[in-house]
Amino acid sequence: MSATETPSNDTTSSPAALKRLAALEALKEVRSGMKLGLGTGSTAIELVRALGEMVAGGLDVVGVPTSERTAELARSLSIPLSTLDETPELDIAIDGADEIGPDLALVKGGGGALLREKITASAARRFVVIADETKMVDCLGRFPLPIEVVPFGLTVTLRQIREVAGALGLTGNLEMRAGAGGGHYVTDGGHFIVDAHFGRIPRPGELGPALAAVPGVVEHGLFLGMADIAYVAGSTGVQIVRTSRARG
Ligand SMILES: O=C(CO)[C@H](O)[C@H](O)COP(=O)(O)O
C-alpha cells in the first residue's frame, strides 16, 4: 500500500502556510527544462506563487495550466505557459485534492476543474499531489463527489447517476453546483457540476467506471491509480505518502 516519512519539521500551521509548505516540498522535484502541469485551487495557488518566485530567480520551465484561473495567475507571475496540445507530454503535474484516501485514491473537482485536471495529470509522467493534512481520509466520501455533466438532458443524466450509484448501494442528494452569479456553475469546458452526497465510498473502483458509463457524464472526480506521491503538510511537517504503483 503506501509508505510514509516525514522529512521536514516546519511547525507553521495556518492553512495557507501548510499549503505553501506542501507546494515547496513538491517543487523540490522540479528542474530546469521541465514541462509542468499546474493544478487548480487554493493549494495550487500557493504552488504557482512559489513557482513564480523560482522562475523569477532563473528556473526555466513551461507550465500547462488546468484552468483559466491558474493560467491568469501564472501569466501575472511571468511563468511561461503552453497548452496541452502544444505540449502533450509533461514531466510532472502538481495539483491539490479534496480528499486523499487509501493508496492515493483521490476526490478532486471542488474547484470545478476536474476534467482539465484529469486530462493534464494523465499526460504527465508523474502526478504529484499537494495538500494539508485535513484532506487525508480512511475512506473517500466525506467530501461530496463532483461529477461534470453536459447541460443537455440533465434530468436523464441525474436519473442515470442515481441508478448506477444506487446499484452499488450509494444513495444521497445530487446537488447542482451553483454559479457565483446565480444559475448553475459552468466549467471552463461549458459543462455543469453535480456534487453527489453519497457518503462513504468504500469501492471507488466500482463507482468510477459506472459513472463514466453514463452518457451525459463528461468526467467524475475520482482520480484512481493516478497519483504517484502526495506531499501532505501538517503542524509537525510534511508527510510523504507514496503508492506502490509505478508510473513510468
Ligand atoms: O480539484 C480541485 C479543483 O478542481 C482542487 O485541487 C481541489 O478542490 C482542492 O482545492 P484546494 O486546494 O482549494 O483545497
From TrEMBL:
Active-site annotation:
117
User: Pathway, per UniProt?
Assistant: Carbohydrate degradation; pentose phosphate pathway; D-ribose 5-phosphate from D-ribulose 5-phosphate (non-oxidative stage): step 1/1
Top enzyme class, one word, equals isomerase
The UniProt record lists the EC number as 5.3.1.6
Gene3D superfamilies linked to this entry? 3.30.70.260, 3.40.50.1360
Binding residues for substrate = 40-43, 95-98, 108-111, 135
Instruction: List the catalysed reactions.
Output: aldehydo-D-ribose 5-phosphate = D-ribulose 5-phosphate
Q: Which UniProt keywords apply?
A: Isomerase
Q: Give an example GO molecular function.
A: ribose-5-phosphate isomerase activity
Q: Which GO terms describe its biological process?
A: pentose-phosphate shunt, non-oxidative branch
Xref: SUPFAM superfamilies? D-ribose-5-phosphate isomerase (RpiA), lid domain, NagB/RpiA/CoA transferase-like
Role summary: Catalyzes the reversible conversion of ribose-5-phosphate to ribulose 5-phosphate.
Quaternary context: Homodimer.
Q: Which HAMAP family match?
A: Rib_5P_isom_A
Record-stated family: Belongs to the ribose 5-phosphate isomerase family.
Name of protein: Ribose-5-phosphate isomerase A
Recorded source organism is: Pseudoxanthobacter soli DSM 19599
Taxonomy of origin reads: Bacteria, Pseudomonadati, Pseudomonadota, Alphaproteobacteria, Hyphomicrobiales
